[in-house]
Amino acid sequence: MSSDLSDATGAETADAASDADGEQPLVRVEGLEKYFWENDSLIDRLLGDEPVAVRAVDGVSFDIHEGETLGLVGESGCGKSTTGETLLRLQEPTNGRVEFDGENVYDLDGSELTDFRRSAQVVFQDPFSSLDPRMTIGDIVQQPLDVHDVGTEAEREERVRDLLERVGLSVDQLDRFPHEFSGGQRQRIGIARALALDPEFLVLDEPTSALDVSVQAQVLNLLDDLQTEFDLTYLLISHDLSVIRHICDRVAVMYLGEIVEVGPADDLFEDPRHPYTQALLESVPRASTAEQDRDIETLSGDVPSPRDPPSGCRFRTRCPKVIPPADLEIEQADFRELMDLRERIERRDVSLETVGEDGRFEFEDGSVPERDVSAFVTALKDRLLDRDLPAEHDAVVEEALTELATSNWDAAAETLRAEYQSVCERENPPLETPASWAGADVDSSEGEDHPVACHLYAESTRSAPEPDP
Amino acid sequence: MTETEMDTTTRNTNAEEILRVSGLSTRFFTQEGQVNAVSDLDLRIERGEVFGIVGESGSGKSVTARSLMDLIEPPGEITEGKIEYNDPDLADAVRDDYPQAVDGEYVDLLEVPADVRESLRGTSFSMIFQDPESSFNPTLTVGEQLAEAVEVQRRASARPRSTRAKTQDYTLASFALSTVLPSREYVSEESRERAIELLEMVGIPDPVERADEYPHEYSGGMLQRAMIAQALAGEPDVLVADEPTTALDVTIQAQILDLLAEIQEETGMTIVLITHNLGVIARMCDRVGVMYAGEIVERGTLEDVFDDHVHPYTEGLLGSIPDLEGARGRLQPIPGNVPSLLDSEMEDRCYFADRCPNAMEDCLDHPPEYDADGSADHEVRCVLAERDYEESRALPEGYFGETERPAADKHADPDRTEEDVQPERAEQPVDDSGGDRL
């Protein structure tokens, strides 16, 4: 449509990149952690229950440069909204540091904190619950100006009129109440309110997920225009990958409280490195007639609980590319199967009493009678494994399952661990730009920063990373 | 690719229409006035296909689904139309009592009494809903609820065309008795086993243990699988899926879509898939209908609608989606909002004309469905199918009021006064219809 506008965005991207070289970023997040505590009430303490940490955000670091849009993408429950709220200090962090314009946000108080609040604003997801139903929209947009005591009454009113016009509402609607507006219009009111204090930085928390697709497009275009006009910096939180792709300069992918990959949007979408990012992109159905011929390898299973995240790499429980021990010859699919089996045995998530068809095995004191053991193992293997494994691995599995015949979970888990322990469960991979990769792939990365947290790209684990399919 | 083409051709040559909907109108009589949620809707659904209905919130797609299932509740009512279902056995059974309802092998479901319609639910028609968390009873185990569905179908098939089996066999007294007398238990051992089989069929690991868990112990994706299992309990011919993946994350959505496709392939079931997500449509469907303001404005094969679409609304809908693969540009949104469906505010014109970039004088008459290029199924409710857009006949800018401001979601109604401004969402008759709020 308007080529000049997209050019302007392009120029900004370039600016952002040059900022990256020299100047400091507008927002710098370092090791941010936010835990929520369960069983933490007084009564729980009196009863001696240990509090349980829900690790919503667990050590997240990224920079946002002036004028850019950073996208934070992930599935529900991965901690992306908590990250946004915590970095605005709407929640107190458990640990970590957020610098805004060079100052630690969590050390601010008094007038400095007020200044920070003015320059960093937020637009919430749900336009139906984030506007006070008893205030007119004029009052809603004016409220931040009143709170921060900006200008005279007349000036504030003038400002409110300007803002409403700017976001595409008409000034004669000033006296209406939120319920008189549609979802798209309410989101515009929320945006006008966020812009009232002339902020530098906006956190957009799922700004369009409650809207229809045609209205979503209007709001996305508006956000694009406002960024150009007011030199805004955005942190866009969304689960919708196509929205992220459309408006972000850089993208960070979150999984279970951690960032697994950060990179320039084009680079990350065309050349996703982390197996999770790859799976995520693959899962999105495309609106085109070629879609039915596209093969999707869906991820199995669900996201694990953040109360007890997996050791090492958190994605390893679902990762199709989980790394076998170096000295082991095994097909990837077989290894995935074995890892799933181990996971279930380690979590004791198998009901031994119900193994077998009609004539179930008798358990006495947690053991199957000696004569039934081999039948029990066969039945259990049948139930737990969907694939036939090569003979040598089959033997190991049978050995482990034999331990289960006497309900010896630890020994079963240990047998499998000794044989199949993966680097993915031992170490949590750091988020770093793989040296070998950046060199090998100059074309797409253009020397830009594209770190990824995955052992596939570490020097020591594999000689060369597998190319994308 | 060639395989799909083969499928399509074989389907078209011996296509048998399992469901023929003609002139269906569903209206809601509310305090604000009559809401025309679905008006004069025609549908032809072939046996074994996946038919998609796509539209924005308030376009009437969920009401269409509920009308098919006979789940419209007051103040709603199906005021006109026929829903003809192809079932020779049913036709024979009701021919004597209701001759006016039977046409060859087809039975007009709206002409037979409600209890006959009800007896078809589960065995002939089944539905899965958008929100699995609120569709299960939190106080019963998943296995029990599935077994109940199986039991209902088992008893119903023992006494076909009777609803007694479903409603009157089990009372509070029998519940009280069942706690002491095992013989009075509502759910039999066979049903329980069948429930476990169903859970296994939809890919729930350890179905035996999982059957004894409560809905809150399941994740969203697993619950959606369980709901699919429940819908399959009666081995239905037609499955109506109303936004089956909207509440789910993309990786889980992909799993559920795969599962539905697998089941469809195995059982040859017909699926009517309702969604606002064009990607889901593209992934799953053979034919598509695009709904706007209670009507199907464009229908045809997937290729017709995605590649050769004629209606400017279809164009706008496709243009509004940010592209996952392409370069970034400005989106081409449709200006304005989904229109009000209040009868008093609906003028007799093309309902899209006020948002349409190509509105002409011809659009002031309500357009019929025209045949369009492409496959034989391709029909479109727009004059552009017949004639090209002519600048000279275009409606003057601002004809419908303040629509010229593209950024504003102004309600486009020139006669509208301050008092009757209603929020678009509040006008939606079915409160859980939207698939778009996530």
TrEMBL record, chain A:
<keyword id="KW-0813">Transport</keyword>
<dbReference type="GO" id="GO:0005524">
    <property type="term" value="F:ATP binding"/>
</dbReference>
<dbReference type="InterPro" id="IPR017871">
    <property type="entry name" value="ABC_transporter-like_CS"/>
</dbReference>
<dbReference type="InterPro" id="IPR003439">
    <property type="entry name" value="ABC_transporter-like_ATP-bd"/>
</dbReference>
<feature type="region of interest" description="Disordered">
    <location>
        <begin position="285"/>
        <end position="314"/>
    </location>
</feature>
<keyword id="KW-0547">Nucleotide-binding</keyword>
<dbReference type="GO" id="GO:0016887">
    <property type="term" value="F:ATP hydrolysis activity"/>
</dbReference>
<comment type="similarity">
    <text>Belongs to the ABC transporter superfamily.</text>
</comment>
<keyword id="KW-0067">ATP-binding</keyword>
<dbReference type="InterPro" id="IPR003593">
    <property type="entry name" value="AAA+_ATPase"/>
</dbReference>
<dbReference type="InterPro" id="IPR013563">
    <property type="entry name" value="Oligopep_ABC_C"/>
</dbReference>
<dbReference type="Pfam" id="PF00005">
    <property type="entry name" value="ABC_tran"/>
</dbReference>
<feature type="domain" description="ABC transporter">
    <location>
        <begin position="27"/>
        <end position="281"/>
    </location>
</feature>
<dbReference type="Pfam" id="PF08352">
    <property type="entry name" value="oligo_HPY"/>
</dbReference>
<feature type="region of interest" description="Disordered">
    <location>
        <begin position="1"/>
        <end position="24"/>
    </location>
</feature>
<dbReference type="GO" id="GO:0015833">
    <property type="term" value="P:peptide transport"/>
</dbReference>
<dbReference type="GO" id="GO:0055085">
    <property type="term" value="P:transmembrane transport"/>
</dbReference>
<protein>
    <submittedName>
        <fullName>Peptide/nickel transport system ATP-binding protein</fullName>
    </submittedName>
</protein>
<dbReference type="InterPro" id="IPR050319">
    <property type="entry name" value="ABC_transp_ATP-bind"/>
</dbReference>
<feature type="region of interest" description="Disordered">
    <location>
        <begin position="426"/>
        <end position="469"/>
    </location>
</feature>
<dbReference type="InterPro" id="IPR027417">
    <property type="entry name" value="P-loop_NTPase"/>
</dbReference>
TrEMBL record, chain B:
<feature type="compositionally biased region" description="Basic and acidic residues">
    <location>
        <begin position="402"/>
        <end position="415"/>
    </location>
</feature>
<dbReference type="InterPro" id="IPR027417">
    <property type="entry name" value="P-loop_NTPase"/>
</dbReference>
<keyword id="KW-1003">Cell membrane</keyword>
<dbReference type="InterPro" id="IPR013563">
    <property type="entry name" value="Oligopep_ABC_C"/>
</dbReference>
<keyword id="KW-0472">Membrane</keyword>
<keyword id="KW-0406">Ion transport</keyword>
<dbReference type="InterPro" id="IPR017871">
    <property type="entry name" value="ABC_transporter-like_CS"/>
</dbReference>
<feature type="region of interest" description="Disordered">
    <location>
        <begin position="393"/>
        <end position="438"/>
    </location>
</feature>
<keyword id="KW-1278">Translocase</keyword>
<keyword id="KW-0067">ATP-binding</keyword>
<dbReference type="InterPro" id="IPR003593">
    <property type="entry name" value="AAA+_ATPase"/>
</dbReference>
<keyword id="KW-0547">Nucleotide-binding</keyword>
<protein>
    <recommendedName>
        <fullName>Nickel import system ATP-binding protein NikD</fullName>
        <ecNumber>7.2.2.11</ecNumber>
    </recommendedName>
</protein>
<dbReference type="GO" id="GO:0015833">
    <property type="term" value="P:peptide transport"/>
</dbReference>
<dbReference type="InterPro" id="IPR003439">
    <property type="entry name" value="ABC_transporter-like_ATP-bd"/>
</dbReference>
<dbReference type="GO" id="GO:0005886">
    <property type="term" value="C:plasma membrane"/>
</dbReference>
<dbReference type="Pfam" id="PF08352">
    <property type="entry name" value="oligo_HPY"/>
</dbReference>
<feature type="compositionally biased region" description="Basic and acidic residues">
    <location>
        <begin position="422"/>
        <end position="438"/>
    </location>
</feature>
<dbReference type="GO" id="GO:0005524">
    <property type="term" value="F:ATP binding"/>
</dbReference>
<keyword id="KW-0813">Transport</keyword>
<dbReference type="Pfam" id="PF00005">
    <property type="entry name" value="ABC_tran"/>
</dbReference>
<dbReference type="GO" id="GO:0016887">
    <property type="term" value="F:ATP hydrolysis activity"/>
</dbReference>
